[in-house]
Amino acid sequence: MSGAALQASAPARETMRGGRSSLTRSRVRAAWIFIAPTLIVLILIAGWPLARTIWFSFTDASLNSLADYQFIGFENYVANYDGEWFGLLTDPDWWHSVWNTVWFTAISVSIETVLGTIVALILNASFPGRGIMRAVILIPWAIPTVVSARMWNWMLHDQFGVINDMLLRLGLIAAPITWTASPDTALWTVVMVDVWKTTPFMALLILAALQMLPGDIYEAAKVDGVHPVKVFFRVTLPLIKPALLVAVIFRALDALRVFDLIYVLTANSRDTMSMSVFARQQLVDFQEVGLGSAASTLIFLIIALLVVITMVAGQVRLSGEVR
Amino acid sequence: MADVVLKNVRKSFGRAHVIHGVDLAIGDGEFIVFVGPSGCGKSTLLRLIAGLEDITSGDLFIGGERVNDLAPAKRGIAMVFQSYALYPHMNVYDNMAFGLEMAKSSKAEIDAKVRAAARMLQIETLLDRKPRQLSGGQRQRVAIGRAIVRDPKVFLFDEPLSNLDAALRVQTRIEIAKLHTDTRATMIYVTHDQVEAMTLADRIVVLNAGRIEQVGTPLDLYHRPANLFVAGFIGSPQMNFIPCTVAEAGQDGIEARLPDGGTVTVPVSSEGVRAGAAVTLGIRPDHVRLSGQGTLTGRIELVEELGENHLLYVNVGRERHLTVREPGDARHEVGQEVGLSLDGGFCHLFRETGEALPLLKPAGFPTSRPSAASTSIA
Ligand SMILES: Nc1ncnc2c1ncn2[C@@H]1O[C@H](COP(=O)(O)OP(=O)(O)OP(=O)(O)O)[C@@H](O)[C@H]1O
Ligand SMILES: [Mg+2]
Predict the structure, then answer these.
(1) Structural domains present in chain A
(2) Contacts of B87 in chain A (CB under 8 A)
(3) If you take atom 4 of ligand 1, which residue's CA is the nearest one?
(4) String of b and e for B82-94 (b: at least 16 CB within 10 Å)?
(5) Cβ pair B81:A235 closer than 8 A
(6) Which long-range contacts (CB under 8 A, 24 or more apart) does A230-233 make?
């Protein structure tokens, strides 16, 4: 705005070239100078590894002979020898890991969003000790994932774990449950630990959004006699929706890349294997750099696709309601 | 019946005592205005009546019913907030209808009420807009509309016009006055603006530091302020105050001696006042006259032209200033020496405690300006 005003007030200096004044051009130049360092660092630490991974996914490189490989085109993704299909896209284990990851993301992010909202609403109310509560609730988020996963591993241990012990004493179960090993419970267990760990993060993001809301409309609602539940759904929720959407995208991105939690809790179990765990297994355990890179590339594509879908859907909804 | 009665109402926030025992009876259909300096507790008192704050002690009755423990929605009140407090994501129609949905009214009934209010406030064409697509004045009308559709027994306004420009203020003020005549609802109105207070109020309540200083009709407060605070607060520019001593306390008034020797006889009751007591003499800028040989002399320090009249700030010595308001354009210049005469009939006297001495003329205060001829003071 001030730029436009400046331009208009200095017509003498304005040398029109391609519809841009010299002032605009010097601003654009300054902008490039300022973002150049960031761009260079990004290219070095993100662009280069990404490009290399994508390149490796088209080769037959292996971990013990990284220098010596051949370009094999799309064979890591899909290939046909004598009528039989090979490659990642035909591998049921890969698709199983994709399904696990998506399922884990959908369930855990949903639960975290609901719980996070509830916790944020509680923390937003004024009660004695609120400051301490806000700090305490962040502890699960502050503990490194590997540490908390190990901790839960012990608590969930089928023989020595405190959780089985408690449930047995309460008479809720008849025999100890192998939480992380049984196919029925393994993925749910992972979800539960993730919810325990990440709800605080969600709550904090939502709390920040809640604190931006004007207080007076709640007083108006009080005078209007609107029931608190209705106030939440008709006033609070629509107003924090943009922030909520950002929080959900953040968390979903994180959840789609999930690795450490699942790897520590259940190792390479097929029942819980996520895309990242699958890629690591190919890369490290099987030394298949080509195949692992192909898996990594697909992870990148899947996440990018889901983010675009979410953002477009969110935009449409947002613009439909706010405007 | 929707009279509002406060009995010894107190409010503290933790250890901070904000309202110190307010007694007030507001009649059905009355327009009451709360005025007072910033932080004196006007908003707090209004919020206590609305039920947005809990009353610490004392009783509040609306329409004869004790409502201390009643939720705001059950008190039959509607409130217009200074900040409008519109729901930002709802359009104008929904903003007004939202509260009614809760009252279990039928769709047709809600629609009729909202449209009637919109017509009354001339916002019919704006019903589909969001609050941020409205100007300040339009938002304010929507806020008032939201109050109207609730059909309240008591309207509460917290500085509803303070965010509007001068012209819009006058217009909306007139609309609020019309709303009062149309609905005959009880209205309680908080403002900083003297003109709003004087023009809208049936009675004005002057608050200071959580206490009521005086309650009365606008002219009552203007002509018969009960104490120094009210005298100084009502009227603009402020009343002039001159510290005096009592020269003589007689039947038909008190002769007050000014700091530099002159005397003024003020027709006030001299009961309990002895000669030599310290008093404060008050006179409004309109009632100070310029004259050749006045009670006081001073040098003009500042001239402010306002068009229909002008203000002179006169230094009368010892760091004391008197404000004089004269009609028309200024005929004096800065630095000029002038004489000022004070007509005792237009003066107020206040005891050392700040309490006003009762005026002897009960029927009313002289309303005409003192003429130059009548300023014959020794
Ligand atoms: N929630 C609160 N907690 C503590 N003190 C408060 C609270 N609300 C108001 N106060 C105090 O109560 C006093 C009166 O506040 P109030 O808002 O009623 O003033 P006001 O007369 O409306 O002032 P203004 O004209 O500036 O709006 C102030 O001193 C304020 O600091
Ligand atoms: Mg206030």
Answers:
(1) 20-56 (no CATH), 93-314 (1.10.3720.10)
(2) 217, 220, 235
(3) B13
(4) bbbbbbbbbbbbb
(5) no
(6) A230/B102, A232/A121
Give, in degrees to the nearest 5, the angle at Cα B10 between B7 and B14.
Answer: 160
What is the value of ipTM here, to two decimals? 0.81
Nearest alpha carbon to residue B96 among B111, B108, B114:
B114
pLDDT tens-digit profile, chain B (378 residues): 589 999 999 999 999 999 999 999 999 999 999 999 999 999 999 999 999 999 999 999 999 999 999 999 999 999 999 889 999 999 999 999 998 887 777 889 999 999 999 998 889 999 999 999 998 889 999 999 999 998 899 999 999 988 888 888 888 899 899 999 988 999 999 998 888 999 999 999 999 999 999 999 999 999 999 999 999 999 889 999 999 999 998 888 899 999 888 899 999 988 888 889 999 999 999 999 888 777 888 999 999 999 999 999 999 888 889 999 999 898 888 999 999 999 888 999 999 999 999 988 753 455 444 444 443 333
Q: Rounded to an integer, what distance in angstroms lies between the CA atom of residue A143 and that of residue A60? A: 39
Three-class DSSP labels, chain A: CHHHHHHHHCHHHCCCECCECHHHHHHHHHHHHHHHHHHHHHHHHHHHHHHHHHHHCCECCCHHHCCCCCECHHHHCCEEECCEEECHHHCHHHHHHHHHHHHHHHHHHHHHHHHHHHHHHHHHCCCCCHHHHHHHCCHHHHCCHHHHHHHHHHHCCCCCCHHHHHHHHHCCCCCCCCCCCCCCCHHHHHHHHHHHHHHHHHHHHHHHHHHCCCCHHHHHHHHHCCCHHHHHHHHHHHHHHHHHHHHHHHHHHHHHCCCHHHHHHHCCCCCCCCHHHHHHHHHHHCCCHHHHHHHHHHHHHHHHHHHHHHHHHHHHHHHHHHC
Are the Cβ atoms of A223 and B79 closer than 8 angstroms?
yes
What burial class does residue A65 get, using C-beta atoms within 10 Å of its C-beta: 0-12 exposed, 13-18 middle, 19+ buried?
A: exposed
Give yes or no for a contact between B342 and B334, defined as CB atoms under 8 angstroms apart: no
Left (φ > 0), alpha (ψ -120 to 50) or beta: where does B297 sit? beta
Separation CA B125–CA B135 (nearest Å): 14
For A229, nearest residue in chain B (alpha carbons): B102
Please report the domains of chain B, with CATH numbers, ordered by start residue.
Answer: 4-229 (3.40.50.300), 237-355 (2.40.50.140)
Q: Are B99 and A239 within 8 A, CB to CB?
A: no
A214 part of contact set with chain B, CB < 8 Å: yes
A273 neighbors A263 (Cβ within 8 angstroms): no
Q: Give the distance, in angstroms, between the CA of residue A253 and the centroid of all CA atoms in the same chain.
A: 2
**Best mutation target, A223, A244, A318, to test chain B (most B CBs within 10 A):** A223
Q: By the 8 A CB rule, do B46 and B156 touch?
A: yes
User: Cβ B150–A235 below 8 Å, yes or no?
Assistant: no
Quote the CA–CA distance of B62 and B58 in Å, as a whole number. 14
> What is the residue with the minimal CA distance to atom 1 of ligand 1?
B13
Task: For chain B, say whether A223 makes contact (Cβ under 8 Å).
Answer: yes
Ligand 1 pocket, mutate which of B9, B17, B19, B42 (most atoms under 8 A from CB): B42
